[in-house]
Design a protein that fits this description.
Elements: H1 3-9, E1 23-25, E2 32-34, E3 42-43, E4 47-52, E5 58-66, E6 70-74, E7 84-91, E8 94-106, E9 110-118, H2 120-136
Antiparallel strand pairs: 1-2, 3-5, 4-5, 4-7, 5-6, 6-9, 7-8, 8-9
Length: 137
């Protein structure tokens, strides 16, 4: 999600912090990670069903946090970085479906995903979830 899209999606948030597009050094092996988070994350638990669009592999998990731009999915079988997937999040009989890409992998813990495409109906549900989380803060 672009900065402009995130600003639009969270107009009511006054303390939105944007990260630079800088590259920071990771562990001693020199792995570089580009921080892509442009939206505030909120703790949030929703059931997640994941489908790798290339291999057809399926996985399940639970979100630990969510934003308008993506989520972290706790799963024992995370997909590799850059995997394109269809993700379905379900909470209290509400569902959000999106196309997403794995941006970071933590083996045996989970993966951070960026939402790439949401239909307007699902975007509205996601916006309501995030808005409720922001109000509860």
């Amino acid at each position: 999600m672009t900065r402009a899209a995130c600003r639009y999606a969270q107009r009511t948030v006054s303390n939105l912090i944007f990260m630079d597009d800088r590259t920071t050094k990771g562990d001693a092996q020199g792995i570089s990670l580009r921080d892509r988070r442009y939206c505030i994350r909120y703790p949030f638990a929703a059931d997640a069903v994941l489908l790798d669009l290339e291999s057809g592999a399926k996985a399940e998990g639970v979100t630990s946090d969510i934003s308008m731009g993506g989520a972290f999915i706790c799963t024992s079988k995370p997909f590799p970085s850059n995997t394109r997937m269809r993700i379905t999040l379900t909470r209290k009989e509400q569902k959000v479906e999106a196309l997403a890409v794995v941006r970071i992998v933590k083996p045996r813990i989970g993966m951070g995903v960026e939402f790439m495409d949401l239909e307007s109906t699902y975007h509205e549900i996601l916006r309501r979830w995030v808005e409720q989380l922001n109000k509860a803060r």
